[in-house]
Amino acid sequence: MFKSLAVPEFLAKIDQIKCIKCKRCIQNCGWSVYAWGGDKVLIDTFKCVKCLRCYHYCPEEAITIEDNPVKYRSNANWGFYNIRNIKRQAETGGIPLTGMGSDMPYPVLFDSLLIDACQVTNPSIDPLREPMELRTYLGKKPAKLEFENGPDGKPKLKTKMPPQIKLEAPFIFAPMSYGSISLNAQKTIAIAAKELGIVMNTGEGGLHEDIYPYRSNIIVQVASGRFGVNPDYLNAGVAVEIKIGQGAKPGIGGHLPGEKIPLDIAKTRMIPVGTDAISPAPQHDIYSIEDLRQLIFAIKEATNYTKPVSVKIAAVHNVAAIASGIVRAGADIVYIDGFRGGTGAAPSIIRDHLGIPIEHALAAVDERLRQEGIRNEASIIAAGGIRSCADAAKAIALGADAVALATSALITMGCTVCGKCYTGNCSWGITTQRPELTVRLDPEVYAERLINLIHAWSHELKEILGALGVNAIESLRGSRERLRGIGLDSQTLDILGVKPVGR
Amino acid sequence: MSHNFHKDISGCGLAGIINKDGKRISGSSISKSLCLMNDRGNGLGAGYAAYGIYPEYKELYAFHIMYDEPACQRDTEEYLKKNYRIEKKEPMPTAPVESITISPMIWRYFVKPLSEKAERDAADLRDDDFVVRTVMKINSEIGGAYVFSSGKNMGAFKGVGMPGEIARFFRIEEYEGYIWTGHTRFPTNTPGWWGGAHPFTLLDWSIVHNGEISSYGINKRYLEMYGYKLTLLTDTEVVTYLFDLLVRKHGLDVLTACTALASPFWKNIDDLQEDEKNAMTALRMVYASALMNGPFSILFGHSKGLVGFNDRIKLRPLVAATKGKTVYMASEESAIREICPSPEKIWAPRAGEPVIAELEG
Ligand code: SF4
Ligand code: SF4
Question: Does B252 contact chain A (CB < 8 Å)?
Fold first, then answer.
């Protein structure tokens, strides 16, 4: 084997004068960059992914991780990664994999949208003095209600309400399976979801018994692999989600190799230890919208019509028509995952080139459902690239009922978005199953940080609502009049349904 | 592009009177009450709605229509003739007012949708629905024609001017009604258009409104989903149509509709008894996009009563008073005392709690 000709991306360096040879870096790096050479720490910088675990855990601040200044000769057409990927493919013949959402410089429309505020004619509201409501219910809503007079003379509901998911704030944690993330990471999220009065999603990996106590804050997922799916599982959470696609890898399935299937994961997924866990690209019983309808109703039957059924799709070109079909097929929630959404593992070629951004997809779906008069029939969850409360507020104004968060949740656990989740070596114990790494992630400790994040975003959202002069989240939801586009062409403005700034 | 509108912003004063025993009074008192609040308007719009004014035509829809020019009148009447029996047609009686130098042509028609339903445009609609469609059609499709009143035994009178001037122009002291509402307007941008003054009406709903609906964007999109065409770009149009949808189309009673439009806070709902809690929770979930958020006080008139209500945290004023069988509502107490110096009871209704006064019997 010859030395790789792919230039390393990062240079891990240790200041030998500061280094006290405690070897903590050796222990902390999940990628085995460091090794003990007898008298000093040796560095294999080719392996470094810049996750910064060693940097944070070096007691002497002796470590620096630099972007490698050595690049190929600069070329406006042949970029660094074009050349590097070819070299890697020449060496392996394989499909380069990647993790997390696309890092390509596609325009982010959230950054071209500005939110309104009140002056004089309509007063702003101070969230520190006045109630400010974020509560959100996800699920099918009847178009109208009927009441009768109760025995006490008070109104009593005659219409039967379909099942709903109650959220204390319009945030949910996006599906991440046990297998793609560690059980400790899942537990962290579960604890936070419960404490916050919101929900998490098991992803397609089944439901581990340790997560059962959080079942009133859990959406269980049914994906193409059908891992861990049985009637108990379907009834375990507050809702069931059918996963058709994922923003980062629309149209393709998943593959968890057998060596990553130890006993515990095997049990949860209900497959033999050491077998490959393969999620086929399509669900093999869904080849059309009517097949989807049958699965939706099979699940509703299995859960006795007590749980909303969500359908998760990747944002693709024709997303509005697809979403409309999904709603007509009986789904209570449509979950749209934009192409910038994260993943544990996906071929770079797919992640970086397939699908469309959540902003366009969300706007198109919300508008289509309104034109067809069925917007009340399902709630919309927007996901795939929500980086801040501002993104969340803009998504809600474009029409989302709630937004789903994954990467931001992982960042609270130490993730630096290095994008190497697919290796299973995550130094932060998140996207790995290696016990010596996962043990680092104490769910109780990290749940606190995740709770802090959602509290912070909730406060920010309340400030935004107050500035807008409204005191309930439903007055922002779909209120595109409160958004303006800056520097966007008229066609994009039309798709988003917003006016340009200054109008 | 449906979203490409310029929204109208305005502040205002309003007043309303209802005689619960159905006794009809002249329009002079509402006008007097309103004139006291002249500083709440700037002369760019005032108007009145009155119920019980056309007893001799009470089975017919009274259309008040303003036209910019004769061609609009011709097109409109052509459409009306095809779909309605026109019992009576006449120019609106007006009086010259010095300060009102230009006004549109204003006509009124007493009509009934043709009974041979096959003859008219939409055969399967009930009369009320057909009238709503007619109003939407004329207002959005015939440029320069605007139906500003379409109820039975009621009418709206409005234009650009101070309340006293508009009252004299329309000679409203000559009408007698059992419910009167009035409005003086302070628009912050000036379309100076007669149709933009309040009240806004649809069938026998009439709305006068002081405020700004900060949730306008979503309220509008919600209504559009149910086929309403919002052409006027004002909050008040939204309020009118929301009432139409919730009360007439969805069959909610007025109190429930008001509760949906200015809903209680979750913390209060959570404390209710089970049945009421479920009812209120469902109401908020289902009518989330109808919630009118932002500062407002509104008087909502219909043939059987008058409702006054405020936004959920009362950011605009509303005072109510009673004397005998009469209920008064206005932006300011002084406006009530101007016409009823010693009310039996006078109070400021709480945020989100409607004052509902209905005809007796
Ligand atoms: S811990 Fe992370 S940053 Fe440090 S050497 Fe290893 S891979 Fe590089
Ligand atoms: S989860 Fe771990 S491997 Fe994945 S991006 Fe974050 S730090 Fe890197």
Answer: yes
B200-202: strand order across its sheet: B200-202, B205-211, B296-302, B305-310, B355-358
CATH number, domain with residue A218? 3.20.20.70
Question: Which of A113, A398, A471 to probe the B interface (max B CBs under 10 A)?
Answer: A471
Q: With respect to residue A231, please indicate whether it lies within any of the assigned structural domains.
A: yes
Does the residue A159 lie in any domain? no
Domain-embedded: residue B158 = yes
Collect all residues with Cβ–Cβ distance below 8 Å to A93 and sequence separation of at least 6.
Answer: none
DSSP B124: T
Ligand 2 atom nearest the C-alpha of A414 is: 7
Residue A406 has pLDDT above 70, yes or no: yes
Residue identifier of the C-alpha nearest atom 3 of ligand 2: A421
In this prediction, residue B116 has a pLDDT band, given cuts at 50, 70 and 90, of low
- What does DSSP say about strands A10-14 and A63-67: parallel, antiparallel, or unpaired? antiparallel
Predicted confidence at residue A280, as pLDDT, reads 87
Q: What is the pLDDT of residue A7?
A: 86
Among residues B151, B165, B160, B130, the alpha carbon closest in space to that of B207 is found at B151
Q: Decide if A476 touches B, using CB distance below 8 A.
A: yes
Q: Which class for A287: exposed (0-12), middle (13-18), buried (19 or more C-beta within 10 A)?
A: exposed
Question: What pLDDT is attached to residue B196?
Answer: 84
Is the bond preceding residue B199 a cis peptide, omega within 30 degrees? yes
In sequence order, what are the residues at sequence separation of 6 or more whose Cβ sits closer than 8 angstroms to the Cβ of residue B140?
Answer: B229, B231
Q: What DSSP letter does each residue of B133-179 carry, written as one string?
A: HHHHHHHHHSTTEEEEE--BSEEEEEESS-HHHHHHHTTGGG-EESE
Catalytic residue status for B12: yes
Question: Does the residue B105 lie in any domain?
Answer: no
Q: Which of residues 257-276 of B touch A (CB under 8 A)?
A: 263, 265-267, 273, 275-276
* Residue A252 forms part of a structural domain: yes
> What's the one-letter identity of residue B286?
V
Backbone angles phi, psi at A337, to 5 degrees: -110, 115
Residues in chain B with CB shorter than 8 Å from the CB of A157 are 275, 278-279, 282
Asked if the structure places residue A27 within a domain, the reply is yes
* Residue A495 near chain B (CB below 8 Å): no
**Rg, chain B, Cα only:** 20
How many CB pairs lie under 8 A apart between chains A and B? 137
The angle at the Cα of A289, spanning A283 to A294, to the nearest 5 degrees, equals: 75
CA distance A192 to A203: 17
Ligand nearest to the CA of A49: 1
Q: How confident is the model at residue B1 (pLDDT cuts 50, 70, 90)?
A: very low
Q: Which residue reads 């009238």 in tokens? A: B131
* Residue nearest atom 8 in ligand 1 by C-alpha distance: A48
Range B23-34 average pLDDT: 94
Nearest-by-Cβ selection for A475 from B253, B293, B313: B293
* Alpha-carbon span B145 to B136, nearest angstrom: 11
pTM of the model: 0.93
> To the nearest 10°, the Cα dihedral for A412, A413, A416, A421?
-130
Over 60: is that where the pLDDT of B119 sits? no
What total of structural domains would you count in chain A? 2
Long-range contacts of B274-279 (CB under 8 A, 24+ apart): B275/A150, B275/A152, B275/A154, B275/A156, B275/A157, B276/A150, B276/A152, B276/A154, B276/A155, B276/A156, B278/A156, B278/A157, B278/A161, B279/A147, B279/A154, B279/A155, B279/A156, B279/A157
d(CA B123, CA B280) in angstroms, rounded, equals 37
Q: What is the spatial distance between Cα A128 and Cα B121, in angstroms, rounded to a whole number?
A: 55
Range of the domain at A63: 10-94
Q: Could you report the per-residue pLDDT of B239-255, keeping only the tens digit for each?
A: 989 999 999 999 999 99
Q: Across residues A54-68, what is the average pLDDT?
A: 96
Q: How confident is the model at residue A120 (pLDDT cuts 50, 70, 90)?
A: confident
